[in-house]
Fold this protein.
Amino acid sequence: MSSNDIVITGFGAVTGAGDDEAFRAAWLEGTSAVRPFEKGAEGLPPGYGAQAAFVHKDLRALPGGRGLRPGTMTEFTFLACGAVGRALKSAGVDAPDADPEEVMDRRGVYLGSYTNFPKLKKHSKLTHVMGDPEEAHFGRYSIADARIGRGMKGFTGFDFLKLMNNMPTAHASIQAAARGPANTLLGHSSVGLQAVGKAVDSLRLGLADQFVAGGTGPGTSEGLCTFRHGSRLLADDGLDPATSARPFDRGATGLVPGDVGAAVVVETADSARARGARPIAYVKAWNDVFVPPTAPRGGLSDCNPLIRILEGVIAEAGWTPADVDYVAASATGLYSVDVGEAAALSVVFGDSLSELTIAVHTGVSGFGEGGHATLGLVGALQSMEDGRVAPQVNLGEPLEPLRGMSRIHVAVEREISKALVIATSPEGSLVVMAIEKA
Amino acid sequence: MNRRRVVITGMGTVTPHSDNVDTLFAQLCEGVSAVQRITQFDPEGLPAQIAAEVRYEVDGPAQVGRYACDSRTMKFVTAAAQRALADAGLEDELAPDDPERYVRAVHLSSGVGSTAMEALGPLTLGVWGSPDSTEKRDLVALRRAIAAHPETAQHVEDWFCDFAAPALAVMFGADRISTAASACASGSHALMDAMHMIQLGRAKRVLTGGVCTPVTRSMMPGFAMLSALSTRNEVPHAASRPFDADRSGFIMGEGSSLMVLEDLEAAQARGARIHGEILGAGIATDAYRLTDPEPTGRGMGEAMRRALKDAGLAPENVDYINAHGTSTKLNDAAESKAVKAAFGEQAYSIPMSSTKSMFGHLIHAAGITEAIVCTKTIQDGRITPTINYETPDPDCDLDYVPNTAREATVKVAMNNSFGFGGQNVSVLIGAYDGGRA
């Protein structure tokens, strides 16, 4: 390992299947974590998802978790901090606030997230109470400003603080005792991988020695389920939950929500060496691109930009397409996005598609929003560590561009050295990262 | 690493004072406050009834590509972009296959949307009946109603503000976008990130800045509950009083500001007019509490030290500091302490003013608007004042340029921005004269 290398020394995740270890076990077994929504989520479309059973007690048991207060947290911050704690533990940073000041000063946190959404009942009640009763009588809605104060009863300042979209990073920086750079990248499913890429850039610029970076996406949360449905992006109602999330599959009907927080510890080679950390993989290259979608929250309008950055990242890593042995696909289950990703893979890998391991985790975890692609990265790292590739859960008949792809029906032993991770997103931001086993 | 130099070639703004950069700066130099009683709704009965609102009709695009610009957030940010791009001479649309697209990026800071939740009003009435009903409000029934009316849900989703950066990318023909947030530090943070994108060679031209529209029926009382807002409703113009002993909280503001940053060589190659140079930036995180700044100002001071180091400058090279200066008890004392820690004795001789005394706190757009003020300060040789400074506070004993603008030669200005959640950013802006300032 040379001084210029950027290495990943730890990873962690919280998913509907459990933590990263439980997620790995479920994936290797080919078991989906998607289940019917339980009590408390009645009426939420599509009626099923991969809900994480992660509670504050679990968080407190992780590095830096004792200082976090549930009253200031949301589903977004909970999942983020769970993943950050798991990643710190995996990297051997067991007591971050006990590190020397100069280490804390050089540790950063970058997380990808989405705006913390208001609690539906509380904020809808506010909207309701503010309604002008006279207008309501006629079936119309207008606001009576004099009733704002009445509507605010039951709120505290923290209800609004929690909505600030930098809260995942704000909490995680306290948890990780990170006094270096901290930032929250906002958007849909590509931001978690974008956050890891920006951390790599910041390490190259010398802004820090070590980052915890990743993404969070409580896909089964009330707000995201409701409003993804509003954008007509969710899978059909009434499907068998276990087979509903169908990445790259012709029978996919849309996104199946999943809760995912996923993070990695990424640092300079010198930092890893100084603390005796074991590198798992090198980050060789990354890039991102924007493709105006077919609708403001819609499909991928053109696969050529993805082809361009796939080829660019492969070249920057010093590889050829034939060198790549693993692709962690985004494969969201949303046809209008997946078909573009499939086409790009087909063009870039051509005949070698039949030799390539294409990993799709969506069938297990559901679509994990800001955590989705980072979970793909975690899966690639797990394959590098355990020498196995997991089955393509719920991928029956592949989309046309991938007809010749290598099929994996059960977990198999396979040495993984060079991997690409892809993030696609309904708002049009795409990310590709190349990692190589250390 | 042999760093690329990054220059400012375009500035555009939609602020409570004006949507013209020169007019904004002139009014700030005159000490004009834009704080008034809220007009977007009747605030009677709320603890804080005043704000710095954009009270004029904003002239901007109605539609950008597939993105409607009908919300306040989209109106402000696209109008500010239009002005910044025109100022930079980059308003012409690029052909779809123009390789220039590959060197353009958008990096935006945005907060939550304006009034989207109110779109649920008709549904809540339909499901729950009269607003005065004492019946239990059935959440499941509401969810089912929303599911049956996806168009309402889609409108409410505007809360996410996720159209802003893509719309700007369409306007600018940019090949990559990112949106980031670090609360009140966001605008400066975006500027710093954009500088880094250029330094790393990921882009040659970046449209960057922030937008925030928090003067809403729910956010105003929400921030008041955090005891963050001034409640001097009877004297709006005097309510924001950074560093004054009688300060009592900040004033909410709204708006959007954007800059075009360019790689120096790329700017020179197209003959761009250069407003100034981003000399360096520093970021440090408190890792302390969500709402309160670390009381010793450690993180703030560290951000300033890192910015100086990044720019290769000494404290005596800095001629002016545009303070974060929110007008809260804790921030202003901690910032003053931090400036002294970072600059030593030099702190007492550097003029430091807070423009939040006049346009309030623009939250995600604050840092970038203040960076524009810093750039104009360097260009015009006038330092904007901190208005409403009447009673000195022993904890705030620096030169705050009280109440009156000051003529000065400013070659290097520091812009400070500190956010809820403990993220602190300082950016150094310099005069561009062909060499390092």
